[in-house]
Design brief:
Blueprint lengths: L2 E12 L2 E7 L2 E4 L2 E10 L2 E10 L2 E8 L4 E9 L2
Antiparallel strand pairs: 1-2, 1-7, 2-3, 4-5, 5-6, 6-7
Length: 78
């Protein structure tokens, strides 16, 4: 079941896609990128990525104004 997190995270990008997520001092290697979409809130453009790392699901959001990443949601697939 997905859990709303809404915390800042560090993300390593390769070719415009997230490859690693650093959250609570632990690195998670992204295995697969699912859906990617964008939306605007005012003049700010946001990129939303759905990704998996092992059995974990992440919803990551990039704010293109300040280039900060946010982990919006996480779920354990087990």
């Amino acid at each position: 079941m997905p859990v709303k997190i809404n915390e800042s995270v560090s993300v390593n990008l390769v070719s415009g896609n997230p490859k690693w997520v650093l959250w609570h001092g632990r690195n998670y290697k992204i295995d697969k990128i699912g859906l990617h979409h964008t939306y605007r809130q005012g003049r700010t453009l946001y990129h939303v990525f759905s990704a998996t790392a092992g059995s974990l699901f992440f919803r990551l959001v990039l704010n293109t104004d300040n280039l900060f990443w946010r982990l919006e949601e996480i779920a354990d697939g087990l």
